[in-house]
Write a structure and sequence with these properties.
Elements: H1 5-8, H2 19-35, E1 40-48, E2 51-59, E3 69-75, H3 93-99, E4 107-110, H4 119-137, E5 140-150, H5 152-163, E6 170-174, H6 198-205, E7 211-216, H7 225-236, E8 241-246, H8 254-259, H9 262-268
Helix pairs in contact: 6-7
Length: about 280
């Protein structure tokens, strides 16, 4: 009997894997999947004092554990408070990441303050807990941890920076304030009364921290008084601080600030001195 043309040509035959080979292939596939880091905006949850809190962590598409990555802790404004764990990524830095991902090659932590709670106090502990957990989970650079706050988050940024001036490599405060006022009640003051005048105490404590302050000249929600005063006081001390006041701009100073490519260039150039401790 003659062989068929297909057999004579040596055409490849379908290969059927036996049970052992199938198991090996499955294990290799699972190993490869486990070695790939999930990227993008990731849902996370942590428990603080027995209460579960949702938050988000942004991981760049290029992330790998072959190098240490800078980290940004972003504190949102009052309109993004809640319990869904996602609203805080829809305004401010979250928007900038979606529009300009190449400008922000960093891991970004997005904690969410509970409803009717401001950042100073317990919510600040939540923010730090989310930051510390992210630093344990991912490969990060402890000398390139940055603090960015928007409106109420800027107030929280001043609060955290005052208490941990050597923890962060730089800070960005947008449309923020630091002196308590009737229109912006706070859980705790940025500067405790025992430390004296807020302007002087804050400026001297943060005189070595690189800071960039942004504000709109026509902000009807948070007048620029605090921003101008602290910027002038820091300048008088020779501090590495910058102040940008946008003309004809209200409380949405976040838009031109975060759209400026100079901001991430400046931010990622800052490093915490090696001798600094928490």
């Amino acid at each position: 009997m003659k062989s068929s043309p297909r057999a004579r040509s040596g055409a490849p035959r379908d290969r059927v894997l036996g049970p052992s080979a199938c198991l090996t292939a499955a294990l290799l596939s699972a190993s490869c999947a486990a070695s790939r880091q999930e990227t993008g905006f990731l849902d996370r949850t942590l428990r603080l004092d027995g209460v579960a809190h949702r938050y988000q962590v942004y991981v760049p598409a290029e992330y790998s554990r072959s190098r240490r990555w800078p980290v940004i802790l972003f504190l949102h404004g009052s309109g993004e408070r809640g319990t869904d764990g996602r609203l805080q990524t829809e305004i401010g830095l979250g928007t900038a990441l979606r529009r300009y991902p190449d400008r922000y090659p960093a891991i970004v932590v997005f904690p969410q303050a509970p409803p009717d709670v401001r950042w100073p106090g317990r919510a600040a502990q939540l923010a730090l807990a989310a930051l510390e957990r992210t630093q344990r989970e991912l490969r990060t650079d402890p000398d390139r941890v940055y603090l960015v706050g928007l409106s109420m988050g800027g107030n929280g940024g001043w609060y955290l920076a005052y208490r941990f001036p050597r923890r962060f490599a730089a800070m960005v405060a947008i449309s923020s304030w630091f002196v308590p006022r009737a229109a912006q009640p706070t859980n705790e003051p940025v500067v405790p009364e025992r430390d004296g005048a807020p302007d002087s105490a804050l400026a001297h404590r943060l005189a070595r921290l690189p800071i960039w302050i942004f504000h709109g000249d026509s902000d009807p929600v948070i007048p620029g008084d605090d921003a101008r005063r602290i910027a002038a006081r820091l300048a008088s001390l020779g501090a590495p601080a910058r102040f940008t006041e946008f003309e004809h701009t209200g409380h949405d100073a976040r838009d031109p600030a975060l759209a400026d490519p100079e901001l991430p260039r400046w931010l990622f150039a800052q490093r915490r001195p090696r001798s600094s401790t928490h």
